[in-house]
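With this grant's support, we have paired protein sequences with backbone structure tokens. One protein thus recorded is set out beneath this paragraph:

_____
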Amino acid sequence: VRNSQPTLTPFSSWLFMIDVRCLFVFLFLLLTGTIGLPEEARLRLAVVAEDSSASPVADLLISELSKSSSFSLLERQQIDTILREQALSGVGLTSDTTSRMGRMLRADGVIILSAEDKPKGLSGRIVAVEPGVVIATSRHATDPAAPSPESVNQLAARVGALMPKLRVKAG
């Protein structure tokens, strides 16, 4: 009776060890964010300042989110073009209009930031485009004109934690 298990020669054993090591290195680099996901696997996000006083926070949030390789951020020019074409900039962004804008941009999610006067602060909401629902809201007691780095980091961390919810499809 012949042994049905293949025998490893020293050369094939050495090749197998290289393959395993390469796999571990690749997984480590992927999980630590050193290498990113392919463009088509990344979530597409749009960050919108509902009013001009929220623009400084939007700029800082975009800067913070751009450090992640889990998603790609849409260009502000694309967003502004859609807002102008749809005349959404003065209307206010409801979840319906945000979802419509997101579909036009082929975005998975839209982050809307707006400044509040009394008390001074910043509010934000994240809309999942496909189902057209607000998946999170938050309020930060920070001056939108001069946001604290901590509040921007907290907002970016919250966005990162909610990313899996943006993959949910309607239906």
About this structure: The CA atoms of residues 13 and 74 lie 47 Å apart.
